[in-house]
Write the structure tokens for this entry.
Amino acid sequence: MFTAACAAALLMMTPVQDAPRAQPTEAVQPPMPASLVPRRVRLLPEGSELVDVRGTIGRHASLPYWVLEIDDPRSIARDVELFMLPNRRLEEMELVLRTARDNEIVTFEVTGEVLAYGSRNYLLATSAPQLVMRTAAPEPTTAPEPATTAPDDGEARSDDSIESIMRDLDEAVGAIPRASDRSDDMMDAAESQTTPIDDGTLLVHRRGHVVRDVRGGWRFVFDADAHGASDPSVTLLPCLQLERIQATLTKRGRSTPMLVSGQVYTYRNSRYMLPMTFQVPRERTRLGGVNDQSDR
């Protein structure tokens, strides 16, 4: 028989549901201005090739480098900051800019190899034909005086000399400067004179030491040969291989000798080398063991 006591017991056993709580609303943050959005640095992998990419070069605001600004919006490197590495091709591009007129915007079609070092990309140009784009000529400030008399045929042909024709052609298409035309003031007087060498000359398994120079860069100093002669030291170009060389020196010590192979380039009478491979040689033992090499 259902009694009042049973009803009270059932009420005590039934769980009481809490009233639904109001969910807190998140505050809507206003969008950050585009000028304050941090720019993400995008890097291209080392070994990438740029072929006939149009752009202009200009000096970096704070670093002693030329920077390639790509004009082609379809290029994958459009928003990548590319620092130009020193070689004869860059020297010729500088010469073109030095000989350009004030009303000219010089555009280059650059082909080269992309390198990576730290958080930056570098470009070693192998070809850079110039494309000169002229701006509009300024309007004359005063009206020209009207001609009073028409010149006869003799006067009209008086300036049709070979010099005049060549001058008109140069003004129409622009003279093409060559590397042999550069003046002495383009050379760095502080650098020593070196024997001319073709860009890309390969040096294989040259022994020496990697040291820091006064400018903070890394140089490879060649060991002297059996006759006591050695080649001039070269500045190592930034690349992934240079990072590996630095890591090896940190682990083994700054006085560690190395066998380095790489390509040599010339810029403003100074030599640079792009390291390709390196090895740490094992010294001979007192018993005259084989001087084998540790693989790197």
